[in-house]
Write a structure and sequence with these properties.
By secondary structure, the chain is α+β, with helices and mostly antiparallel strands. 25% of the residues lie in helices and 34% in strands. Strands 1, 2, 3, 4, 5, 6, 7, 8, 9 and 10 form a ten-stranded mixed β-sheet that branches. The N and C termini lie far apart (37 Å).
């Protein structure tokens, strides 16, 4: 395989209507890492059945913040569904962080959750369980098969757009109305 000339890190993958496989149907994935060995990302628009309060309780982390406890945890993808990932905008040196791009980070260490429970965490954060992974050349193949749109990521979409509006909202950023595509509205 040739070298990847443009990394898709800090881009969103928006599932086209033809991608009907769960959990990717109507999904939006933030690509956190993309290189010649493959890609890793997290879905950012699919609330799970869990809340942050439940996750913190499982980890023996207490908090008095009712709002934090009620926040949904997202289904981040089918890979490592038992593992937590925090997408956030805080540049502090957490124990295990990766700069995704433009002030957005992925952290997998407990210290960020402890800080959030104390009210000292990032101003904006999404907690996910699981991630998505693509092997060498796999994502490029899915892009060539027109399974995904790529959209530059931005904090407004990641942290302020309601989950149910992210799929269409992300596509609209590049002028695409997903509800007008043939596979969504029916075959002509």
């Amino acid at each position: 395989m040739s070298e990847i000339s443009t990394s898709l890190a800090h881009h969103l993958l928006v599932a086209l209507p033809s991608l009907a496989d769960e959990p990717f149907a109507r999904s939006v994935a933030l690509i956190c890492q993309h290189d010649q060995n493959g890609s890793m990302g997290v879905l950012v628009n699919q609330p799970s059945d869990y809340t942050i309060g439940e996750v913190l309780a499982q980890m023996d982390i207490t908090t008095d913040d009712d709002e934090l406890r009620q926040q949904p945890v997202l289904n981040g993808g089918p890979v490592h569904p038992e593992r937590g990932f925090v997408i956030h905008d805080d540049a502090r040196p957490w124990e295990s962080s990766l700069l995704v791009g433009d002030g957005v980070y992925l952290t997998t260490s407990r210290d960020i959750l402890e800080a959030m429970a104390r009210g000292e965490g990032p101003a904006n954060a999404l907690v996910t369980l699981g991630c998505a992974g693509w092997g060498e050349g796999q994502l490029e193949g899915e892009l060539a098969d027109n399974s995904w749109l790529t959209v530059p990521a931005d904090a407004d979409l990641l942290f302020r757009t309601p989950f149910e509006q992210r799929w269409q909202g992300a596509a609209a950023r590049i002028g695409v109305d997903l509800f007008r595509l043939t596979d969504y509205s029916g075959h002509v």
